[in-house]
From TrEMBL:
Any one GO MF annotation of this record: hydrolase activity
Protein name per Swiss-Prot or TrEMBL: Alpha/beta hydrolase-fold protein
A Pfam family reported for this protein in Swiss-Prot or TrEMBL: Esterase
Domain of life according to the entry: Bacteria
Signal peptide: 1-22
Sorted UniProt keywords: Hydrolase, Signal
Amino acid sequence: MKRLLVLIAATGLFCASTYAQKIEKEAPKGFDQVQTGIATGKLDSIQYESKTVGTTRKALVYTPPGYNKKKKYPVLYLLHGIGGDEKEWLKGGQPQVILDNLYAEKKLEPMIVVMPNGRAMKDDRATGNIMAPDKVQAFATFEKDLLTDLIPFIEKKYSTLTDREHRAIAGLSMGGGQSLNFGLGNLDKFAWVGGFSSAPNTKKPEELVPNPEDTKKKLKLLWISCGDNDGLISFSKRTHDYLYQNDVPHIYYIEPGVHDFKVWKNGLYMFSQFLFKPVDVSSLSKYTLLGTPASTNIRNAKYPQILPDNRVVFRVKAPDAQKVQMDLGKKYDMVKDTAGFWNVTTDSISRGFHYYSLLIDGVAVADPASESFYGMSRMASGIEIPDRDEGYYAMKDVPHGDIRIKHYVSKPSNTWRELYIYTPPGYDQNTTQKYPVLYLIHGGGEDQRGWATQGRTDQILDNLIAEKKAKPMLIVMLDGNMPNAGGMAGFNENALRSFENELKTGLIPFIESNYRVETDAKNRALAGLSLGGLQTLHAGVKNTNLFSYLGVFSSGWFANNPKLTDPQYAFMKENASTINSNLKQFWISQGGKEDIAHQNCQIMMKKFDEMGIKYQYSEYPGGHSWPVWRHDLFGFSQLLFK
């Protein structure tokens, strides 16, 4: 079995400079079977006085092989589930066998393990209605019993280390929720916390970790694990998502399985090997067997899966294919297994949305397990990679607007055209209010669907409006593809004029005749990405009497096409004073040096400087990609109509 090396910390909580013991990614066969000829620990049943409950309570205590009262030991408190008691781990998991075997292989720090009854009430038996309110409440009451009664008793009766760095807590199901609640809620008492298949009693992550920076300083290790077919996995995932977004080091371990001891025993085997040793934080994202299905997967599709370090596992069934590749900008050769499935694990993929395709015997096709999006001038698969900065476009419990799909007859082309339009919260209720409008254009190879689906426009604006950071506005996501324009290969002044004509004589009149919008320049904005940025530069700059706000994302006039660009610069030079006077905001943004439009943009802005054109520049790393353009909309929309 493949093993990973864990580095020994030299200084600080997570510093590492030399290698320690090897840690497996999964328990080997026989890890939970009794072995002969090895030293074994001892199990004791103890009783302690609980002032919290007002009675004598029971617990099991495991002391390691060779336990010596002259030596002091760290302690792991191991909690059971809602239907169990202090003997549930013993009956279902035989932790003493797992631990004895680990000691024999020198994989474990000697420790005392305490298995209490986590139902803190006078009749703490797992009988009757275990979901009764008083019994559920008793699991919360156990926090006080643990801290004020059980821990002091253990530390008086046994030879233990009594500082937080030598105290751990972990549990399964209800006990997993208790462990996360009590451990993260009492970091002055626990430095090691583990939740196996944590149940709905787990607090919301914002309550578990209200101060991520403080948690990072105090926590030695946080372990969260679950079976991939466990109905409670959403509680583990929401905690992981929050920790990921707030950059709190932890292990998120997913394995094949359900809500049972097969998963929990493996969790104990893995988690216990980390305890009371230096931890290499850089390796934590590698400890998992499975990833999380991408949010862009179709319903119930398990693949693609995203691993905690943002590598992606792709899997597709094509038993008769001779060669299959996964094309994510970089092409990955897939390997066929005996069941006809082709598999590959990619490198770590950058944050946000990415188009991808399967190449099956040289033919590019969409992945049947993924949602498809119009991009790359065709329908392609898309995958959403977790982004630590994604909070501004996350779905939140705030008032929500609508995205509506409308068709209109274009007078310039005498054709039916489609647009997507965002109406803010309250639009249908506030029937006398008129709103400003942002006309928003997609890039080359995309259409009016891009900003609505790939761009998350509605979620970005819903959140900003709720926080009063953006004015309520309509956003018209138009189709910038003009008939007979010839695409990028045929992109020229005529194509730009065709778009300008459609905007002025087709689209804007339709919007202003059918929606409650303000109809003056100070309440109109125009923005676009890439090719849409060029359309904005042309139609917006030529018509500053119509638009007071222009946004140009990842774009710029071509430095190698003077036939197209020189007339644009000539117009701007001649009308610089009018442009500066009419525009309240001329916002230009890029995705850093890796953005394919970066150089053109830098040359263009230098031209603007020479002509005295005023503008505001913003840069957000990420290249020529949707994570950048989402952030552009987030920033630009906050400047509008104020």
